[in-house]
Amino acid sequence: MSSNESPMAKMSMREGFGRALLEYGGHNSKVVVLDVDTSSSTMSKYFADRYPARFFNVGIAEPCMVDVAVGMALGGWIPFAHSFAALIGLRALEQVRTCVCYARTNVKLVAGYAGLSDYKDGPTHHAVTDVANMRALPGMTVIVPGDAQEAGRWVPVVAEYDGPVYIRLSRAATLPVPNESMPLRIGEALALRSGGDVALLAHGAMVGRCLLAADRLAGDGVQARVLELHTVKPLDGQAVLAAAEETGAMVTAEEHSVVGGLGSAVAECLCGRTGATLERVGIPDTFARTAMDADQLLDAYGLSVEDICAAALRAMRREKQISLKEG
Amino acid sequence: MPYLPEAKISELEALARQLRLDSLAMIHRRQAGHPGGCLSAAEILVALYFHKLRVDPARPLWPERDRFILSKGHASALLYAALARRGFFPVEDLECWGELNCHLQGHPDRLKTAGVDMTTGLLGHGVAIGSGLALAARMGGMDYRVYVLLGDGECQAGVVWEGAMTAAKYRLCNLVAIVDENDVQLDGLVHEIMPLAPLADKWRALGWATLEVNGHNLRQVVEALDTAEEIHDRPTVVLARTTKGKGVSFMENQARWHGSAPSTEQYQRAVDELQREPHG
Q1: Which of the four CATH numbers 3.30.310.260, 3.40.50.970, 3.30.1360.70, 3.30.70.3270 does domain B6-276 have?
Q2: Cα A181–chain centre separation
Q3: Which residue of B has its CA nearest to A69?
Q4: ipTM score of the complex?
Q5: Counting one residue from A and one from B, how many pairs have CB atoms under 8 Å apart?
Q6: What is the pLDDT of residues A18-76, one digit of tens each?
Q7: Are the beta carbons of B139 and A58 separated by less than 8 Å?
Q8: Which of A27, A209, B48, B180 has its CA 20 to 30 A from that of A13?
């Protein structure tokens, strides 16, 4: 992304979510918000400033925050517990598993600074295994919005769904995702672009990159379908299988380790049910580094638009080889 | 606060003996469970379920009920016995404890068992969850109270203190923690494995009111729970000094009885001792 005019959405994802929570908090008095000394980073401060009686800052104590949220949910409230993804998804994981998922309490986990988006703080602050951890938990719903407006639109949906939710937000602005007119429903993929040669399946910051990749592929005569899988769990298996059936070549793209995330979820879905080929674009099984901006870091770890295009061509080539063999 | 007549105390003592017998029968039948920590907390559970808690067995999800979290979830046999004797489900149900399709799971499960307010098992959660519940009550203008029972070994877990700080910050006077202070944990003695002393000072330093009682003296336990209701500016912890394995001579103060079941011969001896033992 080296053009002078930034192609990024005007607003960061955390900003979009924070503003929406403030607004929705006015309509739904059951919403309570918790944070762990990160409210000016997660942007829960907007809600905190307007509704101080429904805001609880428990200090740097993520496991405690999750448990306190569990207690509030038991008492009939709808807690949105905010932290960095690396902490809420890892340090507090046992709380999440036992007291949120197993006990099935109506807790909403808002995981900020996800993926590599905290580019300047480095691997301690990156969260590239959180989706794997969260989606392995029975009863959990895992949502990864594509941009700021979408992040905000999830607030009412998540609040009004009865059950545990992990919503993963980027610190940064992402490329805009033109899905404003599409209703958001948990577990229902969004078809952002049609195409029959290859399917690009993505969530989060990679949705915008897949749309750019599809433009580029179209220049080479390849029609790429783009499917936004904002819900990693429950995965929209029907949409994934239809894409596999109709294109025969699939690419997943995620700002997450290739171990256990969206690529794995799609592979699990396809396994034994389709002959489609699958290429996974994701962060290799390694710790990343710091960088001067998030985009540079995504590019450096194999998530560039070029990487997506190359993966698409590989998937199509292998599909052709297989069909020749079988032919 | 009303003074409980001796007859009432004797009745509660008989119930504590009953819960001990129930717990041991369950653990023996299942050949699994945690006898030591059930026997140490019998009076505490009796004081809660037969004196203090505002609950209605006919309406286990009554929104105005007092809440109880067994943070030391491994004493599940004792909790199930208390719930059954209090009328939440038939006493005969205790016989299926731990079986695949029984509503009484190895550790308490709020979704399966009437009267269980929170799922527990792994240690450390109760105080923080109790803080959230106490905040929920306050925000909703409800007057229910929240009680949490934890072990002393459990106080080695850092999240207990995170929860304790939270309760103190918000001055949750509707929250009462009770520590079953029996000084025995899985691997040995609490004061050797990771000393907690001075435990009362720790809670006090964080902003809690502390009450220290003999956890096997029902009058003391009951009065501490009553006293906690008179404290209006902070949460209360009742440090209940107890004996692990209380009432069964060969189990008392023995770490090996933390989590193992008695043989039939040992079980018979235990029952004989409990039935012989005078109340109190």
Answers
A1: 3.40.50.970
A2: 19
A3: B132
A4: 0.96
A5: 100
A6: 999 999 999 999 999 999 999 999 999 999 999 999 999 999 999 999 999 999 999 99
A7: no
A8: A27
